[in-house]
Amino acid sequence: MIDLAKNRLFIYPFFGSLYFLEGIIYALATVIIPIYFIEKDIDLSITTIVVGLTTIPWALKFFFGGIVDYFKKFGRKRFIIIGEILSASSLIIISIIDPKTALIPFTLLIILASTGVALLDVSADAWAIQLSTEKNRGKINAAMFSGQFFGMALCTSLIGNIAGIFGYHIAFICSGFLILIVIIFSFIIKEEIIIKTRQKIGKVLIKEFKNNTTKLIALFGLLSSISFGLLGVVVPIYMKTVLNLEIGQIGLFVTIGPLSTMIGNIIGGFLTDKYGRKGSLALFLGLNLIFTTGLIFANSWQKLIILWSIIGFLHGGHYTIVSAMFMDITNPKVGAAQYSILSGLTNVGEMGGMSFSGTLITNLGFSRVFLYSGWIYGPILLILYFIKLKSDTKKIITKKVL
User: Fold this and answer.
1) Residue of 43, 274, 328, 400 with fewest CB within 10 Å of its CB?
2) The domain that contains 210 carries what CATH number?
């Protein structure tokens, strides 16, 4: 058994592997399943609604976080393993269901798979908060999201090609067994359970969310995730309906986005640990405003891939820094619950973007959707200006002294 408290270098690959599983589910929901539905001649509005429904468990992370904190005496690892098994089994079962004739069971099963990784997510986040400090939270989040976007990249390319060659039912089976393989890593990690009793979390949470900084950060997280959630569905559909690419090609091309996001995760993690949260965030968000708006000029797959790679890189840095900021203000006593509420709000933003993407495309067209996805970063930067962080203040004071 590997003790993370004593073997700290294992923290990064372990949490990276957990988020790798999240990347698989995300890629299935936003890339593989939408293309599958289009090939099945399922209406675009229904397709995007189903994609949005798959993110409901992420919006309810506060509920799962409360359960994990309340039963803290059982530790985090047990809930992680339950989540992994739930996701894997749901994907294997979904392989025998045709969404054209059984849309509701298909949707319920993909929601169940998302529920498993949502439970895994809140448990992993709480464990990471317990083991980390402000000095390495950026790098831990970089490892987490690098794992997530590597999972997205692998799923969109490998699973996408499996779907194109052998069929979608084989692709879902392979996804489920891939999750089962990763479970092995969870079994060999040792967890030291500190709390031996059930936790009272209500009063602590209320006190934490009365803080004005916490409120602003929560609003910031909600709004800053809308654009990428929207584009995550719009870009694959744009490739299919406008650029006329096949599922295998789309899988390969969309893979470039997550790979560039991984690089952004790593660079964002190091930047925020060294230079603080706000300044690093402002840099990534400002550039994202410019390049996301630039998607209106992507009239070929070559231009689209270049812009999508840059946007992925910028989003990766942004996501890592925001998550580190969430950890900074989270009270470890309610680590799973408070952090899950904050990160759950970002998932609500993504869910809103995904759910309304089909309606927006129909009513506005791709160009206006791309334009508005970029412009939304303007008010988000304004909110960031009013956020006050103690960690950034300490870094400024330290630099002046030196």
Assistant:
1) 400
2) 1.20.1250.20
